Amino acid sequence: MQKVWESSQFKEIYHVNTTHYEPGTPSLRIQSFCHSVSYQSWIGKSDIPRSNIIVSMILSGEQKVTRMDGSEKIESKGYFTILDLSAPGQKFETISPSAERYFVLYEVNTLLKNLLKEMFPGGLPSFYAVDPEKFKQCFELIRDELSNNRADDSRIGAYAYQLLHEAMIQFPEDPLPKPVLIAKNFIDSNFRDPKLMTRKEIAKAACVSISTLTNLFHQHLKTTIWQAICDKRMENVKQLLTYSNSSVEEIARECGFNYAYYLAREFKKQFGMTPLEYRKQSRNL
After folding, report:
1. What is the CATH topology of the domain spanning 178-283?
2. Residues 72 and 63: beta-carbon distance below 8 Å
């Protein structure tokens, strides 16, 4: 089923998957494919959390991406991204006369989570494609199958896997040792748990001793395991302060702090202002 959304700033043509699907089925499931064109001055935000994984590639033009920490990056033709939409916090702005991209939305289930964790132990990737044409072909296979009046969910699932597999092939090898990648991914997945306080638990997940992991963090990340946890929590705190209307108490619970007082104290120590002062400042930018 095709849907078209259009305004003076963008045009998006969606091909929606209408095949029957039972939630929890152990298969890869594409929700929709989109061919998107945005025009200069278009601004979008990933500020509405959704339970989807988006896989996208820029076909032409340039966009500026502003992350929750204020850092900016220009992305252009061939830039490929896998992004978890349940973690909002980026702003996208078209800075060329127009920007064109393909993207697909994956339904999130256990199979997809495990597959992505196995393929990308260091976290979801963003990079310039070595061979953008191969990605383009993968996207278009999904589009064409969804456009078929007799679309087959098993073929869609196969094409969904093919796209991720191509990403794994083209993804530049991460220079970090595997135990560090696994530990970072474990922290990213569990930082909301207030009990994530011991190096033992993280070292166990990485299948190395505490001393080995500690030395690897010092050598490759120039930080400690505990500081990596704190940094991840604070990154998410800043994201929620900027892009959500949650109270400081709610944000504290969401980000692994037992009490809002502890969050406020650590936040001011690190950034020199209270969480509410940061919220006001970040929204006035």
Report:
1. Arc Repressor Mutant, subunit A (1.10.10)
2. no
- CB 190 within 8 Å of CB 228: no
Domains 2-170 and 178-283 alike in fold: no
Q: Inform me whether the pLDDT recorded for 49 exceeds 80.
A: no
* Sequence spans of domains, the chain: 2-170, 178-283
- Three-state SS string over the chain comes to CEEEEECCCEEEEEEECCCCCCCCCCCCCEEEEEEEEEECCCEEECCCCCCEEEEEEEEECEEEEEECCCCEEEEECCEEEEEECCCCCEEEEECCCEEEEEEEEEECCHHHHHHHHHHCCCCCCEEECCCHHHHHHHHHHHHHHHHCCCCCHHHHHHHHHHHHHHHHHHCCCCCCCHHHHHHHHHHHHHCCCCCCCCHHHHHHHHCCCHHHHHHHHHHHHCCCHHHHHHHHHHHHHHHHHHHCCCCHHHHHHHCCCCCHHHHHHHHHHHHCCCHHHHHHHHHCC
Distance CA 146, CA 12 (A): 16
Residue range 14-45, pLDDT digits in tens: 999 988 777 667 789 999 999 999 998 888 87
Over residues 95-143, the pLDDT tens digits come to: 899 999 999 999 998 899 999 988 998 889 999 998 999 999 999 999 9
Amino acid at 41: S
CB distance 187 to 196 below 8 Å? yes
Name the residue among 239, 207, 203 with its Cα closest to residue 224. Answer: 203
d(CA 53, CA 35): 16
Assigned superfamily of 2-170? Jelly Rolls (2.60.120.10)
